Each structure stands twice: as C-alpha cells, then as structure tokens.
Amino acid sequence: MPRAAAAMPRPANQRDTGLDDAELRERLAYTWGRRPGIIGWLTTVDHKEIGKRYLATAFVFLALGGLLAAIIRLQLARPEAHVVGPDLYNQIFTVHGANMMFLFAVPVMQAFSMYLVPLMVGTRNIAFGKVGAFSYWIYLAGGVFLWVSFVLDIGPDVGWFAYVPLSGPQYGIGKRADVWAQMITFTEVSSMAVAVETIVTVFKHRAPGMTLTQIPLFVWAMLVTAFMIIFAMPAVMVASTSLILDRLIGTHFFNQAEGGSAILFQHLFWFFGHPEVYIIFIPATGMVSAIIETFSRRPVFGHVAVIISLVGTGMLAFGLWVHHMFATGLPELGASFFTIMSMLIAIPSGLQIFCWLVTLLTGTPVIRTPLLFVFGFFFIFVLGGMTGVMVASIPIDLQVHDTYFVVAHFHYVLIGGAVFPLIGATYYWFPKITGRMMSERLGVWNFWLAFIGFNVAFFPMHILGILGMPRRVYTYQTDVGWDGLNLLSSAGAFILAASFALFFFNMLRSARVGPLAGPNPWGAGTLEWLAASPPPSHNFDHIPFVTHATPLWAERESLPIVTGISVNTREILITTLADARPEIREASPDSSIWPLIAAIATTIAFIASIFSPWAAVWGSALIGVTLVGWFWPKSMKEDEE
Amino acid sequence: MQCSRGPVSTFVLIVASLLALAACKREVRNIRPDPAGAEAPLTNAMVELSPGGTPPVTTRTKKGEDYQRNAYQLAQGKTLFKQMNCNGCHSNGGGGMGPALIDDEWIYGSSIENIVATIREGRPNGMPSYRGKVTDDQIWQIAAYVVSMGGKVPSAAAPSRDDSMSNLPAESRRDSSFEKSERD
Amino acid sequence: MIRRLPCLLVFAGALSGCRDWQSAANQAGAEAERIWSLTLTFTIVLGLIWLAVMIAVAFVIRRRRRAPVSLNDAMLADSGHRRNSWIVGSLLAATALTVAILTALSFVAQRPLFAGRAASAGIRLIGHQWWWEVRYDGATPSDMFTTANELHIPVGTPIRLSLESADVIHSFWVPSLAGKQDLIPGHNNSIELLAQKPGAYRGQCAEFCGLQHAHMGLLVVAEPSESFEKWQAAQRAAAAAPRESDRAKGAQVFVSKPCALCHTIRGTSAGGTVGPDLTHLGSRAYIGADVLPLNVGSLAAWIADPHGVKPGVNMPPVHLGADELSAVTAYLIGLK
C-alpha cells in the first residue's frame, strides 16, 4: 500500500457516519481512485474506466468493419468489377462478419453493461473487478490479432461461420482458418468473463431494497444476455477448438471419412450462432426500454411482462438453431420442430413491442434523438422480424436461404434491432459517461441519414435475393439482371456510412465542447442518474436504499441512504438475491497489474497454439504462474457480517 | 507539436513492422499464374561432389524458394500429386514401384530444382517425363509439395492432413527428425 | 402481373437487364410455384401486420402533446392499467393466432417436399470446386454418360436427383424450379424437380465454397421427352472423329498437351477425370460453369487464360501456339 504512506493519518477503519459531505466525497474518491500515471491506467479495475475502454475499442472496430463493408459495396456496385479479387474479397467479407459479431456487437453491449449495470443497481464497482480488466485486455488482444492477421494477408477467408470441410485441414489452406478459430477463443473468454461479472453484480451487489422486479429493464436484459452467453459460447468454443485440433494435430472430429461429421460442426456453430443474435438483440431491447421509459415520462407498462418476455426470448433462442440448416437434408419431424420454435419467438418479441407502444401511448412522449432512434428501431426491426417469420418456414427458407434476402433480413434485425437502439443509447447515456450532452441538431441529421441510408442500402437486397442472387459472391455476371439494385444498394451504403461519420464526429466534438449535462439531464428515473456526470470513481457518495423501480421519480428529493460503510477501504454491500436485504460487507478488489500480465500470458499461449500443440502445455504453465501472482494472498480485510 | 510526435512515431513504427512482416509471403495466394509464362531452364547437379577444382553447377531459383514456403502452392501441389496419379508409383511418398519421397535418399538430387528437373525430363527406369503433360507451373507446385513430404518446408505453410485415410502424419507434422525415423 | 412484381419494383435501369432466368419470381417448376404462393401469402399477411404497427407508431408520434413537456415531470400513477392490459393481451392473442395460422400454412406447403414421390431418376449431380459434374446412369454401362454444368430433364415428369460432393459443401439451387439442397461430402442428399414449362433455367451454387463460389453456375434445360431422349442418345455416343484437317490437328494437340490429363473425350485417348467431361462440349451453351457463352472467341480465350475470367480456377493456362489454339478450339467447338 504505497499510497497510504503519503496520506494523512486516518483511523484504521473509518465509516461514512459522522463525516460531512465534502470530506466523505474526498475520502471515498481517494480510496476508490486509481493510481497516478500510466501505471494507474494499466492497473485500474474501475468498471467505468474499463467500460469506457470497451466502448471506445468496440467503436473503433465498428469503424474498421464499416470500412470493409464499404469495400464490399464498391466491389458489388457493378457486375464483374475488379475493385478487389476473389481472394481478398473472401477475407474481407469474413473479417467484416467476424469483426461485427465478435469484436463489435457483443463487446459493445457488454461495454454498456460493464459501465451501467453497477450504477443502475447502486453499487461501487462491478463484481470481480480484476476479471473485468482481464477480459478487456483479452478482447483487445483478440481484436488486434484478427486485424493484424488480415493486414498480413492471413485474414480468415472461410466465412464468419467457417463451415468444414472448407475450413478444415484439407481445404483451409495455411493458417487463415486458425486465425478465425483462435479469434473466437479470445472473444469468448472475454465475454464469458463479463457475463459472470454481470450475473454476480446483479444478483448480489444490488442496493438494499431493490427486489428482483424493481431491477431496471436494461439490467434485466443484460442479466438474461449474460446467462445466454454462458450457455451458448461453450458450444462455439468446442467447435473452434476441435477445428484447430483437426487442423493442427490431425484429429477427425469433422472428418466424414474417418467417422467424424461435417454437419456436427454446423450444429455446434449454430447452437451458439442463433442465440448470438439474441445476445446482441436483448441488450438492445433493454436500451429501448430505458429510452422509452425516460422519454415517455412514465415507467414501462408491464414491467413484469417485459421481464418474462426477455427470459422467454432467451430460452426460446436456444431452440431454433436448426433453421440455419434446413437445406442440409433433415428429416421432416426434426425440421418442423424448429419451424414451430422459430415462429414462437415472435410471441415474446411481440409482447415487448406491444408493451412499449402502450407505454408511449399512455405516456407523454418527448421527442429527442434517442427516441428518434427508437422509432427507427420500430420501423426497421419489425420489418426484419417479419422476414424472420418467413425464413422460419421451411419451404420459403429453402428458396431464400443463403441469398441476399437473408443478408437483408439479418441486417434489418441486427442494425435495426441492435445498432439503432445502440446509437440511441449512446445519445442517451453519453452525458452520464462524459458529463456533456451530444448535439441534438447533429443527432437529428444523424438519424435521418442513418434511416434513409439503411433502407436504401438493405431493402433492395430482399428483392435481389428473390431474383436469385446468392450470398458471399465476390461478383456477379451481367446476364442475371442484378446490376441496378446493387448499384442502388451501394449508394445507400454510402449514405449510411456518412451517418456513422457524423455520429463519430458528434461524439468526438461533444466530448470537448458539448454543453455540461449535470447529473440527470433527461430527468430519468433510474439510479445511474443519481451519480454525478461523469460519476466519481466511487459512483455514489451514499449507497441508496431502493423501494421503487424508478427510485428517482418515486422519491425524488428524499431517497433514503445506507450508512456504515467503510470509507478508507474498498468496501461494498452484498445483498440477498431475491429481495436485496443487506447480508455482509465485502472487500472489492484494489488496482492490480496482474490482469494485464495474465492477459499477455494468455495471448501468447493462444497465438502460439495455432502453430504448435505444445503451446497448450507450456502456455498453461505460463498462465498458471501469472495466476499465482494474481491470487497471492494480500493483507485484506475479511468479510464482515 | 511536441505531444503529437510520440503517437506519430509509434504509428510509423507499427506500420513499418507490419510491412516487414507482410514481406513474408507464406500466405499469399498467387491465384493467377502468368498466362505467358515460359519454362525456365535449369542447370542442376544431382550430387554435391564433382571431379576437379570447380564445384558442381546448381541453379537456385527464387521461384523454388517462394513455392516451398507458400501454403497455397504447396496445397495445389498436394492436390495435383493425387490428381496426376503420382501415388500410383510413389504411394503417398512411401514408395512402391517408384522410390520413396519422404526419406532422405535422393537419386537425382533433393532440391526443388532437382525435383522439377526430374518431373520435367523423366528419369531412367520408369519415371516418365511430364513436360507438356502438366503445365510448368504445376510441375513447380508438385515439386514443392514433394519437398514438403520429407518435412523440409516451414510447418506453418505445409499442408495439413487430408480428409481421406492415411497411414502417415500430415506434412505439417513432419519435421527434420521424421525422415530419419522413417528410414530406420 | 403478380409474377412480374419484383421486376416491376426494380427501377427502370434494372428492368431492361431483368432476364429473370435465375429468379424465384419466375417459376417453371411445381415446387417453385408452391413456394412462391406461400411467399406471397406470408408477405401480404406480415406486410399488413408491419403496416399496423407502423400506423400505431405514427399515431403515438402524432398524438403527443403540442405543448412542450418538461423533462421534470413523470407519471407514476398508472391510470387505465386494466384497459392497457386488455390491449396488450388481445394483441398478443392475435399474434399467437397469426403465428399458428402461418405455421399451419407452412406445414401444408412442406408436405410435398418431404413426401418424396419420385423414384431416383439415376441422375447424379456432383459438386466440385467450382463446377458441376452431371452423371446419367443407365441400365448397361454403354447407356451411362457424364457431362458437366448442364443438366437436361424432361418436362412434366418428377425427377429425383442425387446430390454428392467431391470436396467441400456446395448447394444446388435453381430458383425457377425449386428451393435449394446442399451437396455435402459423405452425405446422400437428393432433391425432386418437376419442370412444368420447357426452357433453360439458370442455377448457381448457394453455399460458400471458396475462391470461385461466385462463378459456379449451372444451366438446367427442361425439354419435352422426345427431345430429351434425343439429347440423351446424342450424349451417350462417343465423340465423332474429326474430318476436317484443322480439327484433326486440334484433336492431336488435345491428347498431346496437358488437356488430356484432366479432361475426358470419349472415343479418344484423353481420359482425365479431374476436370469436366468434354465429349460433347460443342452441344453446351456455356463454358467454365456458366461463365462465358460458348463460341470460338470465348473458348479460345478460356483455354489461353482461364484465370482472366475466373481467377483461381483449377484449370491452368495452357501455353499453345496460335495455330494450336485455333485448331484445338475448332476441334472442341465441333464436338456436338
């Protein structure tokens, strides 16, 4: 504890009773603050710091992935174009897909979760703060690994789904498919880590009094997502690890000739791959709930119904992976089951949408940029949901599967269903994160450019799919009649790109010169708006006592608080799972360099193990050593009842 | 100005090192062979001994170097090796009617240029000439693959196992000790 | 009218190029027609639902109070909770009902798909990177023949095709005739086709299969049974020996150059099985898996530099003299 020496003498265990506000704030900020300088930056375990890094990194990957999309649209604007050749194109569309799914969509949702969940449940840090730091470094390493490989012409070129045998040892030439498989491992480790943290934070770190039904809907959405990650990700890790084993040491998991199965890979991949879509979409519904609640000036109608629909969606999402495989030649009964399940998921999704509409109807909507993006979400996502019902039907799917119809469908669902709410959420929570408002004027421009650009870019793809254009083609011939629509789509793509440029510009500019926001610029009702903007390192001066789902609306002036928490050690309150009665006070981890060191060791082991199986052996030993350092006993206070 | 120099020089450093790495052409796919490509003549000695003071004449070609280190060319060579029925005599490199290719014994030289010459010209006692039967580019690909059979190419570029059954480990798992153990 | 709908949706520039021979909206097969009517039903029903939701959203936006609402006010008291629950509940019931009806429609439409009435027609389609091998079995070995990238079927007869793959996963898809089915190595898949109108329909590989996935086309020619029989008889025959002197020279070039190690021309010593069977190349409409229409110029260009149009294709550029090239082109074009 080098810092203790420099500080003024303090009692060993001072509590927050009997201190005036200014001194309390100063002492808490000292206890929870990070060390100065670069070391402080590398060692922090503050969920807000790590959340911001996650956000910034995910937005960088969004921009890079968007760049690839622009190249794709340039190449496809004309038939038989030569902007890029087939080899580079295959790498580009693979990296675009893998990047957007694994390095942007999932991490950006987890970034919001990392930043907001502790604030929204009223605690001072996320559970297992060091794991959070570790997960960020691993995520960064995985992303850099993929992009450096791409620059070096080792970018994966087998599609983001990497079906065997094309990605297998015989046809997946060189190390490109291994890069895909190991990038999966990186991002899965990091997202599993955040999922565990989220679950524990929501279950055990809630502010006293916050019962399960009073948890904000965004937090509920992140909780359901975290459980989905824990159940879905192992499947794809099994797939990608078995693939590396097949390629590196000649096992036969997916080799039909030696008793393996190529279809098994598809099952493992889609058992993850379909829930993945909901792992991206469910957090977005949480954002929509939060935005609608604030801007219609009333709590979301059917709070419990929305929670049930979130849980229901999360469960049903695991029962429809086979609708990605209808063309592989399945027996009728098996395939029909997945048709029913795919259709059924329209019901919980519909329930949420009806609840939101009733909320807007009975509330008094105030239209600001975040709400505009929610309206865009309704327009686009509902359309994507409709085409989703179409592809659930086996006959229709057999016609449109693997065509641009499906490309249109999932961009409607993912951009409309996740990216529009995400941009809205960025406008909504930006003042909390930076302390400054984003420009409304640019926001409205941003919305209309995105809305028009998106629809012009992606609606024609529905028709292209019906007209017979398959996916993943680097070009098309002149005699099939797809030229005009592709050109139109490319034009739309560049409008969409302009909207993203404007979005990034607005963020960068507003972070410097935007008007100061104050703690609660939108007059919202949930706990994150209780903290200052940006929140101090300890989040709240006093831990609130919660009696309502929107505590700031219910008890605006007189929110009860909890006292008796230590101010000179990092102490947080653990509460019971169901009704959040205080149980014990627990120490929250202090800054540490070990997450970074462990992440570096893990990165070395992961990358080396695509070249030599022995890296798994010595790499584990290396990681083991860093973990010994991580868990080395410190003189830390025991938990107290 | 001062504060911008740090990031800029770091960036330049990163870009430079990336370019240096990119110079390694292991993964490049030269998928379009030169349509006008002509056969390059080779002068090759088959052994390292020669009478008199002058060492034997050998050509070392850039093409040979490139092909032996390039994953795509090696994989194409492996496919052609099967398609052109080299297995008929060489049996996956283990030898049969023709000599084994995975060991360290080379009657007509072990370099890729020697092997190209062998495939091109044919050799006495059964090895036919493939000049004009397969294109010269394909001969280089096959020869590069033959080099990889003894584990003498970078394992990161060498082909992995096939989906068909095999009694040998994949080329990428054969190292320099492999040929000795096979011979013993 | 409704059939041309997607084409009409395309703005004028595209309309001129809309040839429609690889389109689900231009059906010539029984299965494609069933799917198309189901697609239209779904589109109309779901489109109306989407429209209803949009009207609701528009209503919400319009009815917001003109007076600026302060962000300081919030309602906690929920008036009309009962009424709102009824609204949500009945909308949910309507959703469930719609879903049930659509599922039932889908089940009815999928019955013929799984009924599998047609016996195997003895036609095997084998996917290669990046072309299609088509094998017609026969009662005796002399009845069998192999061709490539052009599948002929009789009109009005249900045909069951066997689908196999020689390397990676491909997918057979001729939108005018039926939905798609994957060709998976080691799996025995099949698909039933019933062409109702004679004509040529284009198909394309629909599962990503590597470098030239984009150029893996297939032409399906549906013809009346007499001409189908005639075509089969012609295909069964070995290649006729060339009579013209330049074609004879071409034949000589073909068997002495690399061509013969990969391609078969029945009736000659060329017996390679790596590439497509060229015995009746001259009878096909396209070359290079539907990349170029077959004529002297395109064939010569293809032989001299196949990578110019299809970079990465497994056919190497073969170095021939100008006279050799024209001779071999004349020879191949003449293989009717």
Number of helices of chain C: 10
Please state roughly what percent of the residues of chain C sit in beta strands, choosing from under 5%, 5-15%, 15-25%, 25-35%, 35-45% or over 45%: 15-25%
Instruction: Count the E strands of chain B.
Output: 0
Pair of chains with the largest interface and how many residues each contributes: A-C, 97 and 105 residues
Walkthrough of the structure:
The complex is a heterotrimer of chains A (641), B (184) and C (336). Helix content of chain A is 64%, strand content 2%. Chain A has 20 helices and 4 strands. The radius of gyration of chain A is 25 Å and the shape is globular. The two termini of chain A are 25 Å apart. Mean pLDDT of chain A is 92; it is low at 1-9. Chain B has helices spanning 2-22, 62-69, 71-83, 87-90, 112-121, 136-149, 176-183. In chain B, helix 3 packs across helix 6 and helix 5 (112-121) crosses helix 6 (136-149). Chain B is globular. Mean pLDDT of chain B is 79; it is low at 1-6. Chain C has 336 residues and is of the alpha+beta class. Chain C is 40% helix and 18% strand. Chain C has helices at 5-9, 12-17, 30-63, 81-115, 225-236, 245-256, 259-262, 296-304, 306-309, 322-333; strands spanning 120-128, 131-136, 145-148, 150-154, 159-165, 170-172, 181-183, 189-193, 199-204, 217-223, 286-287, 292-293. Chain C is elongated. In chain C, strands 3-2-1-5-8 form a 5-stranded mixed β-sheet, with no helix packed on it. In chain C, helix 3 (30-63) runs antiparallel to helix 4 (81-115) and helix 8 crosses helix 10 (322-333). Chains in contact: A-B, A-C, B-C. Chains B and C meet through helix 6 of B and loops of C.
Question: What is the structure about, briefly put?
Answer:
The complex is a heterotrimer of chains A (641), B (184) and C (336). Chain B has helices at residues 2-22, 62-69, 71-83, 87-90, 112-121, 136-149, 176-183.
